[in-house]
Amino acid sequence: MTDKLPTLAIAPIDDADVADVVALWQACGLTRPWNDPAADIALARKESNATVLIGRDEDAIAATVLVGHDGHRGWVYYLAVDPVRRHRGYGRVMMAAAEEWLRRRGIEKLQLLVRADNSQVRGFYQALGYSEPERVIFAKWLDGRAPTP
Length: 149
Ligand SMILES: CC(C)(COP(=O)(O)OP(=O)(O)OC[C@H]1O[C@@H](n2cnc3c(N)ncnc32)[C@H](O)[C@@H]1OP(=O)(O)O)[C@@H](O)C(=O)NCCC(=O)NCCS
Prior knowledge:
Largest sheet: 5 strands, mixed
CATH topology: Aminopeptidase
Mean pLDDT: 95
CATH superfamily: Gcn5-related N-acetyltransferase (GNAT)
Radius of gyration: 15 Å
Bound molecules: coenzyme A
Shape: globular
CATH architecture: 3-Layer(aba) Sandwich
Strand order of the largest sheet: 1-2-3-4-5
Order of helices and strands: EHHEEEHEH
Helix content: 25-40%
């Protein structure tokens, strides 16, 4: 447990950040062929129930998180810390910012999905106090396409 959280300047994404954020997500292995990250950013920015938060270390984009809610639960996607800036507490700080963003909107619970092939990140979420409730996820593409992994 860190005694003191590091300082990151956290603010919603600007148009000028989009290309750098997409590059960070690619470098962090968070993109998938069936997800267009720029379109995901645009959709998150379209309504007031979601945003992409950027954490800056000096002038560099150090970390991101896409946070939003569906009117009931909060969700987080695209939590990413620049590979050369990991283990400084930035991931913890970005999750704290996402939690606060939701709390201010009256959302009481945050949920997130971890891919089965990213099991190493489970220790990170456990360190932040997240539990693994037993649930089964069902998913369906609404444009009729076949399921993706
Ligand atoms: C997961 C990720 C965001 C963590 O960022 P980070 O800035 O290195 O994490 P922090 O330094 O804030 O670590 C917070 C705590 O989690 C622990 N932790 C971090 N990475 C961990 C790991 N892989 N396994 C176990 N514990 C881990 C740290 O020990 C720390 O605990 P402490 O504060 O009690 O010492 C970063 O590794 C990342 O961007 N990974 C690739 C993208 C990804 O997988 N995102 C999540 C998708 S679900």
